[in-house]
Design brief:
This protein is mainly alpha-helical and 158 residues long. The protein folds into 2 domains: 112 residues, no CATH class; 45 residues. 47% of the residues lie in helices and 5% in strands. The longest helix has 24 residues.
Length: 158
């Protein structure tokens, strides 16, 4: 639950935000390891984002659409039909998201990524920016992230 990269923009959606984050992840020290998966919500879904992940040998798990809240219970315990040989990168990712393994990996997002934002709001009390202007907001958010990471590392250290 540590934040290793931030990217603040004024874009109305996240469709073009995966590549900048991948560049930041590549710039991190080798000791932190290389990401294996990119798990993101449907706002990040685009063929370009999937291609960017695949080019860097990272498996994308980006939601294609909103899922129903109450899917068929049996569907949770069945595998999809085999993947076609000529499936595109998008098709391969969609297939992976339908597998039990893919669903389990994507479900981890709910307990690793989302709680961090909730705790920053509830525990740190950060609910809105005090500064204006993109550069100021980036700086303010980086301070919030540093505070969160310090708090988290203190907890992890015991």
């Amino acid at each position: 639950m540590l934040i290793v990269a931030t990217h603040t923009v004024q874009a109305c959606n996240d469709k073009q935000q995966v590549e900048p984050i991948l560049r930041q992840l590549n710039a991190l020290p080798v000791e932190l390891g290389k990401p294996v998966y990119v798990v993101a919500d449907t706002g990040y879904f685009s063929a370009a984002n999937i291609k960017a992940c695949v080019e860097q040998e990272i498996t994308p798990l980006i939601a294609v659409k909103r899922e129903e809240h109450h899917p068929d219970p049996l569907a949770r315990f069945t595998e999809p039909p085999p993947l076609r040989e000529d499936a595109s990168e998008v098709g391969q990712m969609k297939h992976l998201l339908l597998t039990m393994t893919g669903r389990a990996l994507y479900a981890r997002r709910k307990c690793t990524v989302e709680p961090v934002f909730g705790m920053i709001k509830a525990i740190l009390g950060f609910r809105q920016f005090s500064l204006r202007g993109l550069e100021n907001v980036k700086g303010e958010f980086n301070l919030v992230v540093m505070a969160w990471n310090l708090k988290r590392m203190f907890v992890l250290a015991g």
